[in-house]
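Complex record, two chains
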Amino acid sequence: MPSDAIRAALIKRLRISSAIADEDIAEIEALPISVRHFPAEQPVVRDGERATNCCLIADGFCARSKTIANGKRQILSIHIPGEIPDLMSLFLHVMDHDLATLTPSTLGFISHETLQRLHRRRPVVAEMFWRDTLIDSAMFREWIVNVGQRPAPARLAHVMIELRERLRIIGRLDGNNFEMPLTQEQIGEALGITAVHANRVIKQLRQEGIVDLHRGRVTVLDERKFLELADFDNRYLHQSPTL
Amino acid sequence: MPRFHFDIHENGHLTPDEDGRVFADGNAARKEAVLTGASIARDAFTTGSSHRIVVDVREEGAPFLKVSITLEVEEA
């Protein structure tokens, strides 16, 4: 992967959500990034580890999660190219959850030291990344509401629509089709239900002609019903600098 | 490791599980059946879509166990 492709999705996203200036893009383009390839379902940084880098997803899907004493895992968020899911490790030094790949991924590691130097030189970039972590926590608030209050079919539809909104920003939509490369186990772990229940919900949404999830791709069958079921309002994603 | 199928009856309407799922042992499959029944019942009872959930588990095609959950509300 050429080095500008590593940063392409990040820059695309920052242009839309933060209206980043050209001279700051040049700074991000100049950041030293060490690229590593990870297989699917591989830990990137573990709960309890001390992080010295932030990880930019160049390609692939990742998830943050936490595992409780009985071994049950809760997926907390799904991450796509252009995102830096462990940006908070710049200030919160020891990880309080796991970051792992879902699919084979290309990850770019930026050292904390490099980022700190950039922030001191360009406070505007620091503000932009600050905003990024605030949007991250807005997404967690929505995730809590979703898992705590919505019935399982609406819960899945909401996660799907959010993913679609974020994929749209980085130009990864394909007609009425988009990627959601999670297994039934992982969907269960994200929604707080069993894999068998997740399987049933997926079937139900297909049978009701709303949405079809097949081999990691989502095809929308009825846009109106899909939106209605998910009860989705994209305000919490703050996808423009004025929001 | 044995393969288990989880057929679900909601108000008598059957959703068969064609694919099944592999578990380490019968105990793990039993836990999955109970949790699945409870989580489907939570949705069904609170949205009012049904009042009875049955998770009918087959092991390699043969009956293994059945979890039944019924909503009963007694008004005073």
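Note: The longest helix of chain B spans residues 26-47.
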